[in-house]
Amino acid sequence: MQQSIKSGLLAIASSTIFTPSMTKRPSSSLNFFICRDRISLILFLDRLSTLFLYYFCLEIKNLKQLTRIYLGLLLILGLLACKQTKFVPEGKYLLKKNQIEITKKSELQVGDVTDVIRQQPNFKTLGMKLKLAAFNMVDSTKVANKRFVKDAELSQKNIRLQKKEARINQKRIAKAKRKDREWYTRKVIPLKDTLEPKRFFREWLKYKMGQPPVILDTALHNRSVNQLAVYLKKKGYYYGTVTGGITYHKNKKAIANYYLTPGKRYYIDSIDVKGNSSLLGSYDKFLRKELIEPLIGKAFDEDVLGDYRQQLASLYRNESYYGFSFSNIDYVIDTTLGDYKVAIQMNLTDRLVKSQEYSDSIIRIPHKVTYVKNAYFHVIDTTFLKGDFNDRIKELGLQRLTNGYLTTIDTAVFSEVYLNRSEKKKRGIDVSKDTLNISRIATFYYNGKMFVKPEIMELQNYLEKENYYKEYYLTRTYSRLLQLGIFATVKPIITEIEGTNYVDVHYYLVPAKKQSFGFEPKATTSNGFLGVSASLNYSNKNIFRGAQNLTFSISGGFESQPPVFDKSVEGENIQKAGRSFNTFEIGPSIKLDMPGLLPIRRTVKMPKRQRARTVVSIAYNFQNRSDFSRKNFQLNYLWKFYGGETQIFQIGLPIASVIKYSNITKSADFQSQINTLNDVFLRNAYSDQFIWQDWKLTYEYNTTDKKNKKSNSNIYFKTSFDPAGNLLSLFNNSLDTNDLGQKTIFGLGYSQFIRLDNEIIYAQPINKKSSFNTRLLIGAGVPYGNSETSLPYDYSFFGGGANDNRGWRARALGPGSYKYYLDANRTATQIGDIRIGASAEYRFSMGGIFKGAVFSDAGNVWTYKNDINRPGAQMSMLFLEQIAVSAGVGLRVDLDFFIIRLDLGIPLSNPALPKGSRWIFQSRDAFNQELLSTPELDLSIVPRPFNPVFHFGIGYPF
Description:
Layout: H1 2-17, H2 38-56, H3 63-81, E1 94-102, H4 110-113, H5 130-137, H6 140-178, H7 201-209, H8 218-234, E2 241-248, E3 253-261, E4 267-274, H9 277-288, H10 302-318, E5 329-334, E6 341-348, E7 351-354, E8 362-365, E9 371-379, H11 389-396, E10 401-402, E11 405-406, E12 410-414, H12 421-427, E13 442-446, H13 454-459, H14 471-483, E14 487-496, E15 502-511, E16 515-526, E17 529-540, E18 549-559, E19 583-595, E20 613-624, E21 628-643, E22 647-652, E23 658-666, H15 668-677, H16 680-685, E24 689-693, E25 697-702, E26 714-724, H17 726-729, E27 736-737, E28 743-745, E29 748-749, E30 753-767, E31 770-783, E32 834-845, E33 850-862, E34 884-894, E35 899-909, H18 925-932, E36 949-954
Parallel strand pairs: 1-3, 4-6, 9-13, 9-15
Antiparallel strand pairs: 2-3, 5-6, 7-8, 10-11, 12-13, 14-15, 16-17, 17-18, 18-19, 19-20, 20-21, 21-22, 21-23, 22-25, 23-24, 25-26, 26-30, 27-28, 28-29, 30-31, 31-32, 32-33, 33-34, 34-35, 35-36
């Protein structure tokens, strides 16, 4: 059946695509012609789809898959076949496109002025107006009639529900009367929504996914011409001109033309800043430190000047000038210098505030450097208050609410932080005396008892007593208090102290729910393999009143994983994973995340900017498969530091950062296959593991949340360094040796290695709807000492999958140039000790929740040591020739809370193939000759080269 489908498709493709005029040309070339009208386009796409089916359906195993693909193509062809002007009224024209022509050379680009035009044509994706096609595809009269019927049905159903509700309530009233009750529980049956009813498919397709035709509006066209002229002046083209015109076509389509002649542009020749001396001094500092770019030499642009005002005002507020806003910056423009030069006078004006003497008048006061007088924390909680809160308020004669929050009764002053030795020397204070750090004093208001220790809240505050007031200190404090996870609401209020340049800072804090339980079902995808899982979670956000977050969870699920071997001991093909859930996992875990560096120092002595935290976690996992079961136990003890808004450091506790034990129980068949192969690398991967990391170092740099960035691009860099087994090696003389020649501890051979892994991601937005994203992966591990073969399985690298090289399925790429297709005993999972990978992806919007991508991936993995069972797997100087390359397209469905991703990757270069056949466009002769020269090879198990691979993923690949 499959062979007949292939033959039939090939015949159809040959008869429809290859025209008589092409028979004289080589069969590898196609004469793709340009369609001159809609009918030709449809015929062309139909023929092209047939060829597409022939190429991509060679591996389809049954007619059901073929039918689904063909129906999908028919739907696309149906959308394209619908006449675009189907619903354009007589005498009206469909706006085909806006044609913009910019005469003479200038810095102005077409993309700069496109959004200024008031009327835009129908949305286009990859050159096709699919949304318009979807609208035209459905008959609006039929949709309206069906909606009328459905609305009538909903109304009748609501009448029945109301009658049912009345009958139930009558029975309940009668029952209450019989029992002499004066009350009854009223039954309320929710009615069907008739205002915004659920759409049926055709209605959804037409009015939700579809877009009505954009009818040309000449009034909007003329208005756009005027708006473009205004836009030119805003951008410094004072003598620019704009004209417009409309080109009408016979098929009820029109093109709106816009002709722009910008002329010469004005540039800023000089800028004179005026204001009080302190403001001028700060402005000079901004320029010296390059916090703000000088305007001289830049094009005169009103938008640039507006952004400059906003940026400069923010810098002044961060320089302790409380109340400074963009309205305190005025421009006076002089364009009379000649030679298209502009002189700007920038005035830094005084503050406008309400008069204290006359409340209805406004006065001007000079800007002054502002200091913090006191910091107050209002903990809005009555949980620990004895007695009734309202009664206590009445007794004390207080209002129930203050600033919209419950009034606090009790007061405490936190003053437990003392200056250290270096701070005393810096301030000229006697180092032998204990001196209180005045800036770390804070006042707390609460009711009965504070639910969290005051030192934890004060540690998050950067607006300290007697220190400068800076706006970013306030923002930082706000985010730090929220990040503790123990407050549902954080509301800062700044109050100026009359007649001074001091402010008081008040934080109103509403506690969050301390404990919570949750059940979380999931549909998962791990490198393209599907799974279902669920977890039961318990969380305590403040278990010891120190913002310690305790999380306990037990999770389990089923997942599809590839078999280790393609064939069983008896030589039978093993069913590939992907459709059946062949792996079961379950296990509990507990994690404690707490402030401070336990057990070294007290929280109160920690530097605020580091936000140091300690994370301790213990996890157990049981995994069961048909060929083996694995039990894993892991202990992590990490310190975490934050370096400003861009950096995170994680350091494992020396000697005990990560302790991992893995026990594997193999089936008899699985063990027999390993023994038969006598592969020490494979034996090491599927054996009991004991990993004791000496320490761990992880560094992350991320510019996503960085303020005052000079560009809109983002950079993410992560590196991790993992040494293991070196401390244990010091005791080798007193340790036993197993049958593999390894020294053992607790009866297990321990792993010894060093591993370095690096990842860098660069994202460059192109416009609001598209971006260019790249990633580079470089990692290597060196096994030595007690690990003679390779890295442990969990620390190895692999290639292929939904988040790696998408031309290969997960863990199927490499290692090196290993010829997997010639090895009858190959494993389905390939790992290595070294990895190099790179990806580039262009992402764009397709309208609504749909987004698209065009990508290319390259990379491979290698072994550090020679593996006699996998020739070509070892890293060598020829590694550049062994880079696998793939390309493809992807569809993303953005549902806000997560993204569903579908990618189709096509291998372009396969390093395992012989030279002359490695690239998809090269001849297969060398590959076929290699197969023929291996007579013992079973050709039925040889995978076809360059087959497309379909991947399903959650979230972006990087």
